[in-house]
Amino acid sequence: MDLKQFPPKARMRRWTGGALSVSMRYSAAGVSTCIFIDNGKESILVDVGDGSLRDLLEINRDGEAGSGLDPIEGLKAILITHTHYDHYGGLFSLLHFLRLMERSAPLVVIFPQGSKERILPLMDLFEEDRKGSRGYTLSYRAIPAGEDLTIGGFQVMTLGVDHHDSDIRGNVGERVPALCYKVVLGSTSVVITGDTGPSPELSGFVHTSDLALIEATYPSCMVSPPGVHMNVHQARELGGSAGEYWLIHRTGGSDAEIEGKG
Ligand SMILES: [Zn+2]
Ligand SMILES: [Zn+2]
Question: Which of 20, 194, 203, 243 is the most buried (most CB within 10 A)?
Answer without folding.
Answer: 194
